[in-house]
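Let's do one together. I've listed all components of the complex below, 446 residues spread over two lines.
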Amino acid sequence: MVKIVKFLIFLTLFLKADFTTNCLACHIKKNVDLRKTFMSALLVYGGENNFKTALFYYCKNPQPMTSVMSEEFLKKYLPLKPIQIDDMQLKANINEYWNRYKIKGNLK
Amino acid sequence: MQEFASLQIKRLKWLHNHYPKYNKYPRDERYNSAIYDLEHDKIFSTLKSSKINFNKKLYFTKDYAIYVEILSDYYLGAKYLFIEVPKNSSLITKIYKNILIYGLTFLIVLYIIGYYLAKLFIKPMKDSIELLDCFIKDTTHEINTPISIINSNIEMLNSKNLSPKDLKKINRIKIASRTLENIYKDLKFTMLENIDNKEFKKFNLKDLIVERVEYFTMHMESKRITKELDLKDFIINGDRELYARMLDNIISNAIKYNRVGGKINIYLRENELIIEDSGVGIDKKNIEEIFNRYSRFNSSEGGFGIGLSIVRKIADYYNLDLRVESKKDRGTRFIIRW
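Okay, and this is what the predicted structure of the assembly comes out as:
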């Protein structure tokens, strides 16, 4: 039992670290606020599953037409490059992204 | 409630733009509200009632009326906004009153537009029928004198002084003038006469049939049509002229739509008259419509298409049972029962 708990704690820490390196590092470098991006995407995609599916598809096939990023960002970073991490890791990162910024449960 | 929804949407938009600096869900003492995402997951709710219906614009619980607004922009990830107000009778009365007023107004407008359009579409047809009626009425007035002159002069001709060739020509003129006379009588009956003024008198129908068949003998001979009469005495009470009109129309049709060398059989028994021919017959689908005015299903012969409508009118006037049996290319049978 203790081993399982230890493994889960490790996995959580690993995924968080993974999100930090895979996503956050680059966004900070590009001076993109991940919260603002989240709110822009939420305005368009609404529900959790829809949001995650749309973001997954976008990371794999980024297109200016489907992007919620600002015009300045798109002008600066075109052409957009697909994210080079495996699907499972990407899904875990997107889950982490949702859990960090989600609205549900955070309103008073 | 729509106003409350608009107000709440404005507040949600503001919160969306200022989140997470402000994270207090907007509340209003006049109403409760809730937001749900497109997957029907609750994001936040201050509703008192637990019943949630995504498929209705407005619904009621025991104590509340709930209005549902669908958002086009998903502020805070919400697609559905529920506005809940305490149910009171004046609100519901107002809603039903509005539905009634707007519904009735819509129906009245729709009725007026429909009536106007129908009138617009029917007008050309109505105009043509009126024009045809006027034309026939005018023509009927003018046609009587020339027909009488032709008929009386033909009768005055001494056939003994004529050569067989001329006699043949005179007979043709006689047939044509009688056809014309028949048409005149039909038109006069349809356009100018009032059927209700007719007198009831007893007469023998057998005599009338013999007379009318005699009248059409020349027509029959011109098409080499043979006739077979099996007539028994039958006294009826009615207007002789009206019955003559009815017989003339059935017999003339039997001649007109018969083949050359065909046959016409007339049987008269107690309470039943049958007139049958060996003519072209009528399509089964058209049988019901042959009694309609101006309906003609065979363009090979002339006519206005009013003959059988006269037959129907007279039969109805005397409460007669009028039936038609017909087989295409075999012939038609008119059965009249008293």
